């Protein structure tokens, strides 16, 4: 089966009723990007820039970032590349970004929040993104957005950065989106996402914040399962309430599990972003069923009592169809 999946890796993933679902790659370096493109990824759905520059002692200059983002765009050409702005803080320290002192770093000044009082690093990054977006298909993605004010802040930083790049405004072709990884953003997505091009659900953080259980903590694994119906209900809520024309991506770790691909599409997700090596099998899984079958599966999952029951539903459903 894996062999078949690899053979078809570069073929677009169409469901049985011919709906195209783009399966993109999560990227943490240029090497990972090349691996993703080699596995047939339809672009990069999440470039974790804090990972790309994790080993840098000093902040990269605008020029240095232009070079890196352009190289990533070339790897995935003609597909688009989604650059997430620095998601520093909590589990993602950056040597060139002073860490905040606090008892709850996951609830602290992480992601976009960290730059409101000291925007220099973010403005440099956005200037580089604007410059590369002039002649490459790029999307910019803001992490840890929770309020409408955050979206206004993000947009105003982007406008300032475009001006610094000598442009009249953000380049036409630059897609603008926000991570939906805080419950408040999921609940209010109908207003927050107005005028944006896409949102991207981050189930790693969304599950952590919905279930009040720190991500990655082995002791809390039983309480932080992204398949809990409470998390799935928020994903469906997002898909049902985004303003028309706003695409719903999904870039949490669940998107790398081929058993969950149909469920996510059934919840209303338009495109997935997975670990590079998982792309061929996620594509293969999507071909197995139709969107209405996935919809029914998702409806059953939403009504399930817990994550274990959801897991029982998806395993046989997808394997049975494959
Ligand atoms: C997420 O939170 O689900 C996500 C994709 O972002 P990260 O894992 O980088 O926090
Ligand atoms: Mg996150």
From TrEMBL:
Localization per record: Cytoplasm
Similarity comment: family membership: Belongs to the PEP-utilizing enzyme family.
Function comment: General (non sugar-specific) component of the phosphoenolpyruvate-dependent sugar phosphotransferase system (sugar PTS). This major carbohydrate active-transport system catalyzes the phosphorylation of incoming sugar substrates concomitantly with their translocation across the cell membrane. The phosphoryl group from phosphoenolpyruvate (PEP) is transferred to the phosphoryl carrier protein HPr by enzyme I. Phospho-HPr then transfers it to the PTS EIIA domain.
UniProt-recorded name of the protein: Phosphocarrier protein HPr
Gene: ptsP
Interval of the full protein contained in this chain: 532 to 853 of 864
């Amino acid at each position: 089966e894996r062999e078949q999946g690899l053979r078809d890796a570069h073929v677009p993933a169409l469901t049985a009723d011919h709906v195209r679902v783009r399966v993109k790659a999560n990227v943490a370096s240029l090497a990972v990007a090349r691996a993703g493109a080699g596995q047939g990824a339809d672009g990069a759905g999440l470039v974790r820039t804090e990972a790309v520059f994790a080993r840098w002692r000093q902040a990269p200059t605008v020029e240095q970032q232009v070079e890196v983002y352009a190289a990533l765009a070339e790897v995935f050409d003609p597909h688009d590349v989604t650059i997430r702005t620095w998601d520093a803080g909590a589990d993602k320290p950056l040597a060139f970004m002073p860490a905040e002192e606090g008892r709850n770093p996951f609830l602290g000044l992480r992601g976009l929040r960290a730059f409101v009082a000291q925007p220099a690093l973010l403005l440099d990054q956005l200037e580089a993104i604007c410059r590369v977006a002039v002649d490459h298909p790029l999307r910019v993605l803001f992490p840890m957005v929770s309020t409408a004010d955050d979206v206004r802040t993000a947009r105003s930083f982007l406008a300032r950065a475009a001006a610094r790049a000598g442009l009249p405004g953000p380049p036409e072709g630059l897609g603008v989106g926000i991570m939906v990884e805080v419950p408040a953003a999921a609940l209010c997505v109908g207003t927050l996402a107005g005028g944006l091009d896409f949102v991207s659900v981050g189930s790693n953080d969304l599950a952590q914040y919905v279930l009040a259980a720190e991500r990655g903590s082995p002791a809390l694994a039983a309480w932080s399962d992204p398949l809990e119906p409470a998390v799935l209900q928020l994903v469906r809520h997002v898909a049902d309430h985004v303003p028309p024309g706003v695409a719903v991506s999904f870039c949490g770790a669940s998107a790398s599990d081929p058993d969950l691909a149909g469920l996510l599409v059934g919840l209303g997700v338009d495109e997935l972003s997975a670990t590079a090596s998982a792309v061929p099998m996620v594509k293969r899984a999507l071909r197995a069923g139709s969107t209405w079958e996935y919809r029914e599966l998702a409806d059953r999952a939403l009504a399930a009592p817990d994550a274990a029951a959801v897991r029982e539903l998806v395993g046989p459903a997808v394997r049975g169809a494959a």
